[in-house]
Write a structure and sequence with these properties.
- Helices cover 40% and strands 21% of the residues.
- The chain contains 16 helices and 16 strands.
- The strands form three sheets. The protein has an eight-stranded mixed sheet. Strands 13-12-14-15-16 form a five-stranded mixed sheet, with helices on both faces.
- Helix 1 (2-17) packs antiparallel against helix 5, helix 5 packs across helix 10 and helix 6 (145-154) crosses helix 9 (191-202).
- The two termini are 20 Å apart.
Length: 398
């Protein structure tokens, strides 16, 4: 939780820096809101049930669709509406490394802006968030559904089968080409269609919209080596309509740590009025797995407590309580040991086990001289000084 909270704090700081405001949506949505927008493969992973009022509901699969519902309900929201959302979603998946049934997603989305500048800003947010987290070897792959749709047309695929083909192509990062071709064959695609699809994919180039988006990405400060055009990237969800993107790390092999794209048609499914939208989701669980495995934060404190105020004896209890109150008043996270009958050695072992960097000892000698002893539990050194100097030492350590 210490790592997770640190990640969330960093993400929130960047999100706010770019003008995104916080929002939350309920865990449950009506099934008619959830179904028919993601695609059949995603819907197989949804938790759907009838509640006690015999209402057909489901646990949200992602944060995008519930947010789109909110935007469709509240037409008075200032446009563009920029929001971030950090909440759990649920998927009836097979748990494994990087895939869980309860997932924390951290989303940023912009509603009401059709310019490729809005998509480029999302890529800039991704870059700044990951670099601020300490990531160095990562790459954001970018493609466009418009390019993929054009490829399907050139390959001779019927329009009603575009999304089915794209769902299979989306598996190329997990399966070899021959397995994906076999899946397309099982779905009823002709061999000539499959061969044409892969020929066009291997020869695809960015369209004018993507080229403009790339120029904006660079102008927003993202180095060229941190993003690239990836014609095989498709993103499996049906609601994407324009640029799609996801970010992968070189190590560990954990899959994408961000994923998103433009979904201009989603809100229109609720209201009949098209509202352009784009955004991305950061997978908090995978990001934390990467940080832990690569030991990116070896010195991250295990606790936010900076100092433990010990209780030497019942006679000095009042001074210990005065001291912890003084520390908290001055903005220092401080604990007082909650058993005044425990030996000092036990109290120090507690602080050491919890990772608290300092302990304050106030015995009879310190009380007489109006001093206290501050012990640095990392360096195993200690000094007897005034309360104000001890406060200064603790703050310098921060």
């Amino acid at each position: 939780m210490v790592v997770r909270q640190r990640v969330i704090d960093i993400l929130k700081t960047v999100f706010a820096k770019y003008g995104f405001s916080p929002m939350e949506t309920p865990a449950l949505e009506y099934q008619d809101i959830l179904l028919g927008k993601y695609g059949p493969e995603a819907e197989q992973l949804m938790y759907l049930f009838d509640d006690r009022g015999e209402r057909k509901v489901g646990m949200k699969y992602d944060l995008t669709l519930p947010s789109a519902r909110v935007v469709s309900q509240y037409q008075s929201l200032a446009r563009p509406f920029k929001r971030y959302q950090i909440q759990q979603v649920w998927r009836a998946d097979r748990p494994q490394k990087g895939r869980y049934r309860e997932i924390t997603q951290c989303d940023v989305d912009t509603f009401g802006a059709s310019s490729p500048l809005a998509d480029a800003e999302i890529i800039a947010v991704i870059y700044e968030c990951l670099t601020n987290l300490g990531f160095k070897d990562f790459l954001t792959k970018i493609n466009s559904r418009q390019i993929l749709f054009a490829i399907m047309e050139k390959a001779g695929v019927n329009k009603d089968k575009y999304l089915s083909a794209i769902q299979s192509i989306d598996k190329l990062d997990k399966k070899p080409e021959v397995a994906v071709k076999s899946e397309l064959d099982i779905k009823g695609f002709k061999k000539a269609e499959v061969d044409n699809i892969f020929f066009e994919l291997k020869n695809a180039e960015p369209d004018k919209n993507l080229e403009e988006m790339f120029s904006f990405i660079i102008k927003l400060g993202v180095p060229k080596n941190y993003f690239r055009f990836e014609p095989f990237l498709s993103r499996g969800l049906d609601y994407y309509t324009g640029p799609v993107f996801e970010t992968v790390v070189v190590e560990p092999k954990i899959g994408s740590v961000t994923g998103g794209g433009r979904y201009d048609g989603l809100i229109g499914q609720f209201t009949g009025i098209e509202v352009p939208a784009t955004g991305t989701s950061f997978g908090l669980d995978r990001i934390c797995d990467v940080i832990t495995e690569l030991k990116l934060w070896p010195n991250l404190p295990r606790t936010s407590t900076k100092v433990l105020v010990t209780i030497f004896s019942f006679d000095t209890l009042a001074q210990s309580l005065d001291t912890v109150k003084m520390l908290r008043t001055n903005g220092v996270n401080a604990e007082v040991f909650l058993d005044q009958n425990s030996k000092l050695d036990k109290q120090l072992k507690y602080a050491d086990a919890k990772g608290i960097p300092f302990a304050l000892i106030i015995g009879p000698d310190e009380v007489k001289k109006d001093l206290l002893t501050i012990k640095n539990l990392r360096t195993k050194t200690q000094t007897t000084t005034t309360a104000s100097d001890a406060l200064k030492l603790i703050r310098e350590e921060n």
